[in-house]
Amino acid sequence: MITEVRVPSVSENVKQGKVVSVLVAAGDTVAAEQALIELETDKAVVEIPSPLAGRVTEISVTAGETIAIGALIARLETADVAAADIAPTAAAAPPVATEPVATTHTPAAKPTAPPAPAPAPARAAAPAPDRDDGAPSEDAPAPASPSVRRLARELGVAIDAVAGSGPSGRISEDDVKAHARRLLEGGAAACPGPPCPADGWVLAAARPLPDFAQWGPVVREPLSRVREVTAETMSFAWATVPQVTQYDQADITELEAFRKEFAARHPDAHLTMTAILVRVCAGALRAFPRFNTSLDAARREIVNKDYAHIGVAVDTEHGLLVPVVRDADRKGIVPIAAELAALSAKARTRRVNPADLEGGCFTISNLGGIGGTAFSPIVYPPQVAILGVSRAALAPVWRDGAFAPRLLLPLALSYDHRVIDGADGARFLRWICETLRQPLALVMDAPA
Length: 448
Description:
alpha+beta; CATH 2.40.50.100; Chloramphenicol Acetyltransferase; 3 domains; 7-stranded mixed β-sheet; 4-stranded antiparallel β-sheet; 10 helices; 19 strands; 27% helix; 22% strand
């Protein structure tokens, strides 16, 4: 029998990807779970395997092509298999996420959606928020997913007024943004009254640029997908999250001496300051649980998390990626260091799995290896705080009646002021500084 292999859901909110390479050809015999193509999503390159063993009769994609989730990859000639066994590949697989991911990714966009905005009277009798099959009737709600509805609410756009470009008039995020852009360009307000939330990325796109070529030669280049996602995320964060940045310095004189001595005795341990900070910040989340939350503004609720997953910003040639160390509060610093080194290497080669980039509760951005004295990191929604780390420097500190040279590490904590008060921010950052000042307070699981 002939089985169609389609692009499965590789990660929440991923709608399409670019085919990096096709690993098989028509006529090839493949085993179950053998990779058919490599697909580049927003921030990772993943292999799409064959669900069954068989012979490839047709390849429907080419390298460099952008394809959507659910698109046909190939057709396989297989032995007779129960229909239930091949159903998952016969159509686009629905997004599937484990519970931890579901509670840490933008809360308002989850399958358990908040009540939709007040619909027009003609649609009020509709029993369900969405429908995926068939054309909507006059009494049906606008055909849009919960995440699209959430975006419309954030932009102040009436979802029923948006024209959908998808099958049966299905409304996409791009449709909502295009509608908001038309409102802005036409001088109309995107929402009826204050406050009027807006996506900074949409606002920036709606404002025309001057003709730069009139002043000299210019060269245009398209944004990479990683840069585009970063721009959208940071624009959203800047436009919607009221942020405060708290600054402090940690005396790491003894800690750095201990770290260097430990590294000399265990050169394979990869014991970096970032690895130490991962463990310290995980402990801080346990000590100050309000920092381990997300704000569900649509439901007017705080989502409290009973796990401590720490994201670490990694500078790559493709852009900024943030792999996540899971359950960092339950691990020793040396295992964290090894895991962080492996995740960073995967991120730099774009071989990190999409799941490795999801579910973070708190983020660390360490620029100390590059330089600088301070910076203000931007909160990464739906998290409520992020720690920025700059380069440590020797400074004279008054101790015991005299100045002494001490190694001070500049720290900057940005947090969502809707959730966290200034006093709590100061206590949280001071807790981190005091913990770093006392190396014996850190649990070191040294290798044998």
